[in-house]
């Protein structure tokens, strides 16, 4: 497993901690920092996307950033918010689909701002060329998944519960 660790001087992670984080990540992903604070990731086949991205953001210490990508999945659970009831409706799809767009952001979690909170939306095309999409809860890769993650450097973005909408909105 190849990893590029140009971020070490910036965030001061000691080598022992880096090796521990690599062990946790096992073979979920490989990445390269292609320019300062801009990473290209390749997730390993059959891993869960949100789990792998969360592990990566913890490893590199990203608490404010942007995610975008493409790939292929065999199962996924999407979420839709019904604004009238403020209730989420989840739906799981178990079929081979192409990720035509995956986009999202990273901020600090509402319950623990030192940990990453991923807010990801996805559109996936089916065999008949129709598309499904929504808020991504989970998705299992079947083929490949290639992502770009931009770290907004030393910025911090948090989350707060908005009572009117029921959403976790940015806290500046």
Quick synopsis:
This protein has 172 residues and is of the alpha+beta class. The chain contains 3 helices and 9 strands; from the N terminus they run H-H-E-E-H-E-E-E-E-E-E-E.
Describe the structure.
By secondary structure, the chain is an alpha+beta fold. It is 16% helix and 52% strand. It has 3 helices and 9 strands, in the order H-H-E-E-H-E-E-E-E-E-E-E. Strands 1, 2, 3, 4, 5, 6 and 7 form a 7-stranded antiparallel β-sheet that branches. It has a two-stranded antiparallel ribbon with strand order 8-9. A hairpin with a 2-residue loop joins strand 1 (29-35) and strand 2 (38-43). The longest helix is centred in the first third of the chain and has 12 residues, at 49-60. The protein is flat, with a radius of gyration of 16 Å. Residues 1-17 have low confidence and may be disordered.
């Amino acid at each position: 497993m190849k990893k590029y660790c140009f971020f070490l001087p910036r965030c001061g992670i000691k080598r022992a901690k880096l090796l521990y984080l690599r062990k946790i990540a096992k073979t979920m992903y490989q990445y390269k920092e292609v320019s300062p604070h801009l990473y290209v990731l390749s997730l390993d086949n059959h891993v869960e996307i949100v789990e792998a991205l969360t592990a990566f953001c913890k490893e590199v210490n990203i608490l404010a950033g942007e995610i975008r990508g493409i790939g292929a999945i065999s199962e996924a659970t999407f979420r839709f918010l019904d604004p009238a009831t403020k209730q989420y409706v989840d739906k799981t799809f178990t079929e081979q689909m192409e990720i035509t767009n995956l986009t999202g952001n990273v901020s600090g979690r509402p319950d623990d701002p030192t940990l990453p909170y991923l807010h990801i939306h996805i559109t996936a095309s089916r065999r008949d060329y129709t598309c499904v999409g929504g808020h991504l809860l989970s998705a299992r890769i079947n083929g490949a998944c290639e992502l770009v993650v931009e770290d907004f450097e030393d910025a911090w973005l948090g989350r707060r519960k908005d009572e009117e909408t029921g959403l976790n909105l940015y806290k500046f």
